[in-house]
Amino acid sequence: MLGTGPNFAETSNCPAHHPLTSRILVTTLSVIKTLRSNGWLVVGLLWVTACLNYLDRLMITTMRGSIKEVIPMTEAQFGLLTSVVLLIYGFCSPFAGYFADRFNRSYVIMGSLFTWSLVTWLTAFAKTYDQLLAMRAVLALSQVIAVPASVALVVEYHRGSTRSLASGLLLSGAMAGAALCGLGGWIAEGLGWASSYKTFGLIGIGFSFVLFLLLRDPPVTESVAVNGGSETPPVRLGDAFRSLCSNPSFLVMLGFACVLGVVGWSVIGWMPTYFKEQFNLTQGAAGMSTTLYLNIAALLGMVIGGSWADRWSRTNAQARFKVPIIGLCIAAPAVLLLTNAPSLAFALAGLSIYGMARYFADANLMPMLCLLVDSRYRATSWGLSSFCSAMIGGVGIYAGGLLRDAHVDIGRIFQFAAANLVVSALLLFYVQRRQQNAALKLNPVPVPG
C-alpha cells in the first residue's frame, strides 16, 4: 500500500544508496568537477578536437585514387572537393566567431564535433559526385565554429603567463591532424575510402561524449568594464563588428592576417611543385617531404614560440608581439635559403626553419588579440582574421598559378613570399609600438627630480 511502509529507495538493499556505492559516486563526481576546472586538461581535450578537425577535413587529399575508382570525376572536380571547404570556411568564419562569443563555448564545440563527425561518417555512404560535394560543404559548415570557440575558451582558462603556450599547444593539434591525414589514405588502400570516413567519424562521435562529460566554460571572472561596472550587455553581431572595425590596431591586424595568409597558403600550395621540379623528386616524395617537415616544424614552432612569449611576458608586456616579430624576421631569410639551396638537404633545412619561426605568430595570435579587442568579441576577431587569411590566401595560390602559366620561375613566388614576411613583421611592429605608446600614456614613467 502506497505511503504506509519504508520507501524502497531508503532501504539498505537499494544499490544506489549503499554506503560504498554512494562514496564511489561522490568520489567520481568530485574527480570530474576537479578535472573540469583544469585548464591544461581543457587544452588536451581541445588538442584532440583540433586534430580530428583537420584530419577529417584533409584526409580526402590522400585518397584521390581510391575515391576516383568508385566515384568517377575529373581532376578539376576532385580539386573542387577541397576548394569548396576552404571557400565556405572562409566566408562563414566571422559569423562562426560571433556565434562562439554569443553562446556557451563548450556546448558549441561539443555540438560542432558531434555534427561534423556524423557528417564524416555519412560521407562514407555517398554514391555520386554531387552527394560527395554536398557532404564536403556540410562538413565545412559544421567545422567552422570549432576553432574560434576553442581558442577563445583556452584563453579564458589561461589568463596569465601560460596563455601563449596554451594557445600554441591547442593549434599544434591542427598541425598534428594535417600530418596524420595520411592515415586516411593508408586505410583506404586496404579497406576502401569509405572505411576511413566510417572509422574517423565514429571516433569523433565517441570523443564528443568525452567532451560532454569533462568540458565546461570557466566561471566568469574577466569582463569588460561597461555601464559603470554593471552587468555586461549581451553580445550582438552589429555591436561586435562595429567595435572591431572601429579599432585601428585590429584593422592593422587584419592586414597582417591577409599578408601572412598569402605567404602561408602559397608555401602550402606551391612548395611541393618546387621540390619536385628543383630536385627531380617524384610527386609522392615531394609531397611527403614538404608536408612532413613543414608540419613537424610548425608544431615545434607553436610550442617554442608560445612558451618563449609566456616566459618573456613576465618581464616585458610587449613580449607576445615581439616573439612573432623575431620569428618572421627569421622566417624571411629561411625562405630565401630554400629557394637558393644547392641541395635537397639545404632546402629542407630552410623549410624547417621557416615552418618553426613563422608559426611563432600563430601561437601568439589570440593572445595578441586579447590585448587589442573587447573580451566579449575575441572569437569574432579570430573569425574575421581567419576570413581574411583564407580569402586572400586563396587568391595568392591562384595568382601563383597565373605566374606559372606566364612561365615565371617558381622561385620568384617564394621571393615574393619572403618579402611579405618582412611586411608582416613591420605591420606587427607598428601595432606593438602603438600598444606600447598607449600603455605609456596610461602609466607614464616618472621623471627623476
Brief sketch in words of this structure:
The chain has about 450 residues and is mainly alpha-helical. The protein has helices at about 20-35, 40-60, 65-70, 75-100, 105-125, 130-145, 145-155, 165-180, 180-190, 195-215, 235-245, 250-280, 285-315, 320-340, 345-360, 360-370, 380-405, 410-440. The chain folds into 2 domains: about 35-220, MFS general substrate transporter like domains (Growth Hormone, Chain: A, Up-down Bundle), CATH 1.20.1250.20; about 235-435, Up-down Bundle (Growth Hormone, Chain: A).
Fold blueprint:
Layout: H1 19-36, H2 39-58, H3 64-70, H4 75-102, H5 105-123, H6 129-143, H7 146-157, H8 163-180, H9 182-191, H10 193-214, H11 237-245, H12 248-279, H13 283-313, H14 319-339, H15 344-358, H16 360-372, H17 378-405, H18 410-442
Helix pairs in contact: 2-7, 2-8, 2-10, 4-6, 4-7, 4-17, 5-6, 5-7, 5-10, 7-8, 7-17, 8-13, 8-16, 9-10, 12-13, 12-17, 12-18, 13-14, 13-15, 13-16, 14-15, 14-16, 14-18
List keywords for this structure.
2 domains; single chain; disordered N terminus; Growth Hormone, Chain: A; mainly alpha; 449 residues; 0% strand
Describe this structure in words.
The protein is mainly α and 449 residues long. It folds into two domains: 37-218, MFS general substrate transporter like domains (Growth Hormone, Chain: A); 237-436, MFS general substrate transporter like domains (Growth Hormone, Chain: A, Up-down Bundle), CATH 1.20.1250. It is 78% helix and 0% strand. It has 18 helices and no strands. The protein has helices spanning 19-36, 39-58, 64-70, 75-102, 105-123, 129-143, 146-157, 163-180, 182-191, 193-214, 237-245, 248-279, 283-313, 319-339, 344-358, 360-372, 378-405, 410-442. Helix 13 packs antiparallel against helix 14, helix 13 (283-313) crosses helix 16 (360-372) and helix 14 runs antiparallel to helix 16 (360-372). The longest helix is centred in the C-terminal third of the chain and has 33 residues, at 410-442. The termini are far apart. Mean pLDDT is 82; it is low at 1-16, 222-230 and 445-449.
